[in-house]
Structures are given as C-alpha cells and as structure tokens.
Amino acid sequence: MSEPERRGIERGREVERTIYFSDAVIAIAITLLALELRLPQDLASGEIVRHLVGLLPRLYAFLISFWVIAAYWMAHHRIFNYIRAYDGGLLRINFLFLMWIVLMPFSSSLIGGYGDLQIPFLVYVSHLMLATLTLSWLALHAARNPHLMEPGVDPYAVRRYGTHRMWLMLAVFALAICASFLNVYAAEFALALLFVARPELLERITSRKVT
Questions:
Q1: Which of these, 168, 205, 179, lies nearest to 71 by C-alpha position?
Q2: Is 0.90 surpassed by the pTM of this model?
Q3: Beta strand pairing status for 85-86 and 10-11?
Q4: Rounded to an integer, what distance in angstroms lies between the CA atom of residue 45 and that of residue 149?
Q5: How far is Cα of residue 150 from the mean position of the Cα atoms in its chain?
Q6: Tens digit of pLDDT for each residue in 4-50?
Q7: What domains lie within the chain, and their CATH numbers?
Q8: Cα(121)–Cα(124) distance, rounded to whole angstroms?
Q9: Number of C-beta neighbours around residue 147 at 10 A
Q10: How many CB atoms neighbour CB 115 within 10 A?
Q11: Of all helices (H) and strands (E), which one includes residue 104?
C-alpha cells in the first residue's frame, strides 16, 4: 500500500467531486436567500407600495447575505485552486464550512425580520465569524499538509493568506458588534460598508502571490 493510500488521501477526479458538491451546496444556499422576498397574495394596488417599503429590511438582508456567500465561494474557489488531493480531515472541515453556508438563509431571515433588535444581529455576525474561522481552518489544514497541495505552491503563502483573511474578517465583524451596542441600524450599515471595502484591504495585506 502506498503512502497516500495509508493516509487516506484521494486525488484526481475525487477532488473534483468535492469541489462540484461544494459548489452545488453553495448555489442552493444562495438561491434560498430569495425565498424571503415575497409579497402577500391578492394585494390591492394601493397596498403594493406599502408592502414593498416593508420589504426593504429583508431586501437588505438578502443583498448583504448574497455577497457574503459570494465572497466565501470566491475564497473557497481560490483555496481549492491550490489543492490537488484531500484527506479525511480536509473533507470534515469542508463539510463543517458547508454547514454554516446552508444555515445562512436562516440567519439572514433573522436580521430581515428583526433588524431593529441587537440579538438577531449578534447571532448573524457570530454565524459569519464561525464560517470565516472554518474556511480559514480549511486553508491552514491544506497548507500544513504539503502532500495535499499542488506542486510548486508555497504552503507558507497559503497559510499567510488564510491567516490574514481570517483576522481581517474577524476585525470587520468585531467592529460591527461594537457598533451594535450603540445602534443596530448603524451596525448593519457599517457591516455592509466594511464588507464592500474588504476585498481591497485583503488584496493589500496579502499582496504576496501564492506560487
């Protein structure tokens, strides 16, 4: 039995199956977000505008959660660009990450339905923190096991990307939590602004290429 077989390592198309499965789960979760965007049936024409205005908090929750999941997918995609094999640990971490993604529509519905309350917002942000930690754990697990990485990939650079991404995202969420003690609406707005600025900040602090 070869060394990879003893370690339970799979390569080739087996890795592609993991990627396709992950993409499908993320696609379903991001689609389910839109289920909260609906109006009551049989509305009179004069009531439509009022109900549309009332739908704005759910629309905000949809927009921020859509782009949050999109950002997680892009990071997940980037990580798997450097992975050529997986082991049991990598699979378990990936499933844990997907679990947080599948729960995103639930957390999004909390801030959509109770956007003026702090507890739902704290639950939502805590959910994002757990997803961020898990995705960073995925990158770090791969980097600590060079036999899982593509030839020529610098494990240190992958660890650096995963670590910096984790701390930047946690800092964004910590600022949003602090702001929620002053005003929940301001915290939600700050979360949106900070998340928009996140890609540029991340690019600056992870300017070293993963090669």
A1: 168
A2: no
A3: antiparallel
A4: 59
A5: 24
A6: 444 555 554 578 888 899 999 999 999 998 887 776 666 666 677 66
A7: 3-205 (1.20.1410)
A8: 5
A9: 13
A10: 18
A11: helix 104-113
